[in-house]
Structures are given as structure tokens and as C-alpha cells.
Design brief:
Layout: H1 3-10, H2 30-38, H3 70-73, E1 89-90, H4 97-105, H5 148-151, H6 153-157, E2 166-173, H7 176-183, E3 200-207, E4 211-212, H8 213-219, H9 224-234, H10 241-244, E5 250-252, E6 258-264, E7 276-282, H11 285-288, H12 297-313, E8 317-323, H13 326-329, H14 332-344, H15 354-362, H16 374-379, E9 384-388, H17 393-401, E10 405-409, H18 422-430, H19 442-447
Helix pairs in contact: 14-15
This protein binds zinc ion.
Zinc ion binds at residues 284, 287, 295, 297.
């Protein structure tokens, strides 16, 4: 079956009727699929698989993206407890939705379980801000996502299952580098925000992706129909409604979410008289968690936290946006393949071939689509960043094109660049990343070498 076939030929409502996908008709055979669908006595499962493109039995609650108040906007209903209620494509929890399927399939989770949201509401209120009702400013998250448990209670009482896509909580974090920064006098213990034991008080928000497809298409300068078709194709046909339900405009994609760490008073974020520091950091598990020295990720992240603390202690606030976009959103398998290719190429790991090796393996240098990232800054109501702790030209361009002013850009201090990370940092500077240093010429770039193991 070709791709075109899959879309235009076979996957029409007429060809794939729910009746065709009964366990008995499946290529899996009776026993295997029957077990998956019916075999679990704990779960009340339907006897037939109903394709998502056939679940529609009438009008769904409309979503008016960009509406000023949540009741006009309408709830996001991605729960599969009642298929008739769903007004989005996809399910909650991003990529973790697949684990939920395993839990149901193995009998550990009752698929009819309804979340008890007692005492889960945010301890602080973020927003609403004018940016929340601008459909051009936020297209990749639900600005009302943290209110879902409280503002749609009317729907709840009618049996709708409405889940938050944003959760906010408070925490203490403790990083050994902050203790060093205290010992060296770069930051000071104030006993409130930063404790003598190095504990830092933060407010953090977890954000699941909620994509308004017309807005995503507009942001990427493509047609919505093209976006929907390619999303369907490139997920192996995972979400048929992308091509069969043009009435559904919101997609909960199976991708990683983001976490925002707020340091200092969250009200200072939107106060024009108070300074704001921001670092937008894309996940790098090897460095962030395990301390690999091939890149600058963890030292730069911790430097960002340090600048956030200094700014908060001046009466302002700091924000770290942490995005699950491992390996420039190419994933860690691709990343490790690139590491090997870099170190084994002729002449060894060199700054002048840094981006070329990624492109050889992945076909592109970067897949992070920073154009969507400023949505999180708009969710926080940010209109000006006094200190942007980032050298990335892509992030800077995305933020300023989104209408957010950047006063100062802060590069990673040279003494924080790890031993084997010179290749990365010099290659990035030469490619246009922000730096106060001179950019190296091509011959000099070729001399910047990394380890060969
Ligand atoms: Zn890294």
C-alpha cells in the first residue's frame, strides 16, 4: 500500500467501516486481538474497534481558539472515556499516552477511570494575560490548561471528562553548582529564595502540548491541509482524524512537553518596572543529568539559574523554560550516531564539520522548530526579557519575531565550557550564535578538535 493509497484510496469512511475491524477480521487473529480488546475482565472494553474517524455521532462542543474567557473558548476534551464527547484529535499526556495504553492492555488500569482532581489546583495563579486571547500568539499549548479542573465544572457535572494540560506546583531544588556559586560569592543566601543549604525555592509548571492546527500551519507558513496530511503520514497513520475530521482543529500530539521553572515572585514576570531573566533550554539528558563534557548544556543551564537568582534577588524574576526536545528534537539515538560520526570522520571531531555530521545522519541540522517556543513566554505574559541567557540565534529570532523585546543576551562564560565542548561552542559561534568573542575563520575552526573517543 502506498502512502497515497493509504490516504486517498483505502482510508475513506466507506472503505473502512467499523465492522471490518472486529477481532475476527483482524490480521492479528482472534486470540491475540480478542485478548487485547476483550480479554481483560477488569476493563469494560468494546467488542469492536471503532475507528476514530467513525466515532463522531453529532456536534461536539466547539473550541473557539483565542477567545478571551474559557467558557467562550470551550473545554479541551481529549479523554477517551466517552468517545462522543471528544473535540480534539489525540489523547492527553503527550507521549505518555502510549504507556496508558499498555496499562489498560495489561489490565493494570481501568479505562473508565476518572481522575479525582481534588486539591490539584495551582498554588499560584498565572494569567490570564492579553496574549492568551491572541490566536497568533499562542498555538501550541492551552493557555487555560491549568484552569481546566475549575472553570469547566458545569461540563463535568454533565458527565464530560475534562483534564488539565498544565499543572503548577512549588518545589525546592538543589544543584551542587549553586553551592559553589554561593561559596565563590556570585550569589548570596537570602534565607527566603535561596537557603543556606543551597536549596532554591521555585514554582514550576508542567505543560503538555495542545496544538491548534490552523495556528501551527500559519506559524510555519504552510497550508493546514498539508500540515494535517503530513502529520498523518509521518506518524504512520496514527491519527486518521487529521485527514477525515476537518471539523476538529485541535491536536494533542504524542510528543514531550515542557517544564517552566519560575524563580522569584511570579507577579514580577509581567511588571515592566522589574527585571526579568530567561533561559530557554532544550533537553540534553547526557549533559543535563549525567554530566557529559561534550557539550555546554548543563553548565549553561545552571548559569541560567544563577542569573535568574541574581535577577530575582534584585526584585525581579527568573524563568527557565525546559523543553523535551532531546538532541535538537532528533532524539538521543540520532544524537549518539552523530557523536560517533563526528569522532570517526577523517581529521577527527572538528568544529568546522560539527553541523555537517548531524545533517548527514538526520537530513537536517535541527528539528526543534523554535517558532513554537515563544508560546510559553506568551503564556507567562512576557513582553520584555532583560537578560536572555542564550546564544542561540534561532531562539533569539523566534522570541523577537514573536514581539518580545530582548534587552541583553548573555553568553556562557568561557570558564564554564567543558573540556570536550570547544568543538560545539566554536561551531555554534561560527554559525551565527551570539557571542562577544571574535568568530573563528574556517582554517582556525578546523583546528578546534575534540576527543577521539
Ligand atoms: Zn548537550
Amino acid at each position: 500500500m502506498t502512502e497515497d493509497n493509504l490516504i486517498e484510496g483505502n482510508l475513506t469512511p466507506g472503505n473502512l467501516t467499523p465492522g471490518n475491524l472486529t477481532p475476527g477480521n483482524s490480521a492479528l487473529g482472534n486470540s491475540a486481538l480478542d485478548h487485547l480488546i476483550q480479554g481483560n475482565p477488569k476493563a469494560a472494553k468494546p467488542k469492536h474497534i471503532i475507528l476514530t474517524s467513525h466515532q463522531h455521532r453529532g456536534k461536539v462542543i466547539p473550541i473557539h481558539w483565542g477567545a478571551e474567557n474559557p467558557s467562550d473558548r470551550g473545554p479541551i476534551i481529549g479523554s477517551i472515556r466517552n468517545l462522543q464527547h471528544r473535540n480534539v484529535i489525540g489523547t492527553h499526556a503527550g507521549s505518555y499516552g502510549v504507556y496508558r495504553a499498555l496499562a489498560v492492555a495489561s489490565g493494570d488500569l481501568d479505562p473508565t477511570h476518572k481522575a479525582d482532581l481534588t486539591n490539584t489546583s495551582p498554588p499560584v495563579q498565572i494569567g490570564p494575560y492579553p496574549s492568551w486571547s491572541d490566536p497568533n500568539k499562542i498555538v501550541s499549548l492551552d493557555p487555560f490548561g491549568a484552569f481546566a479542573g475549575s472553570v469547566f465544572t458545569g461540563y463535568e457535572s454533565e458527565g464530560y471528562d475534562i483534564l488539565p494540560t498544565i499543572a503548577i506546583t512549588k518545589a525546592h531544588i538543589n544543584l551542587p553548582e549553586l553551592k559553589d556559586a554561593i561559596a565563590q560569592g556570585r550569589i548570596t543566601v537570602d534565607g527566603k529564595l535561596l537557603k543556606s543549604d543551597g536549596n532554591l525555592l521555585v514554582t514550576k509548571a508542567a505543560i503538555d502540548p495542545v496544538w491548534y492546527l490552523p495556528g501551527i500551519a500559519k506559524r510555519l507558513h504552510i497550508e493546514e491541509t498539508d500540515l494535517r496530511r503530513v502529520l498523518f503520514q509521518q506518524t504512520g497513520g496514527m491519527f486518521p482524524e487529521l485527514v477525515t475530521r476537518p471539523d476538529l482543529h485541535v491536536f494533542l500530539p504524542p510528543i514531550g512537553g515542557s517544564t517552566i521553572y519560575i524563580i522569584g515572585d511570579e507577579k514580577a514576570i509581567v511588571d515592566p518596572d522589574k527585571p526579568l531573566a530567561v533561559r530557554v533550554h532544550d533537553e540534553c539528558n547526557g549533559s543535563d543529568v549525567f554530566g557529559s563534557d561534550i557539550c555546554t548544556c548543563r553548565p549553561y543551564l545552571v548559569h541560567g539559574i544563577e542569573v535568574c537568582i541574581q535577577t530575582a534577588q534584585e526584585g525581579g524574576a527568573g524563568v527557565i523554560v525546559y523543553c523535551r526536545k532531546e538532541g535538537r528534537a532528533l532524539g538521543e539515538v540520532t544524537k549518539f550516531l552523530v557523536y560517533n560520526a563526528r569522532k570517526r570522520q577523517e581529521g577527527g571531531d572538528r568544529a568546522d564539520a560539527y553541523f555537517a555530521r548531524t545533517e548527514c545522519v538526520a537530513g537536517v541540522q535541527d528539528m526543534r522548530f523554535q517558532q513554537l517556543m515563544p508560546d510559553m513566554l506568551h503564556w507567562l505574559g512576557i513582553t520584555r526579557i532583560d537578560r536572555l541567557v542564550s546564544m542561540s540565534n534561532m531562539k533569539y529570532n523566534a522570541i523577537t519575531h514573536a514581539g518580545i523585546e530582548v534587552v541583553q543576551r548573555i553568553a556562557i562564560p568561557p570558564e564554564l565550557v567543558p573540556a570536550d565542548a570547544q568543538v560545539e561552542i566554536e561551531a555554534k559561534k561560527a554559525s551565527g550564535y551570539y557571542s562577544e568573542d571574535e568568530v573563528l575563520a574556517a582554517e582556525e575552526l578546523a583546528q578546534i578538535k575534540g576527543r577521539d573517543y
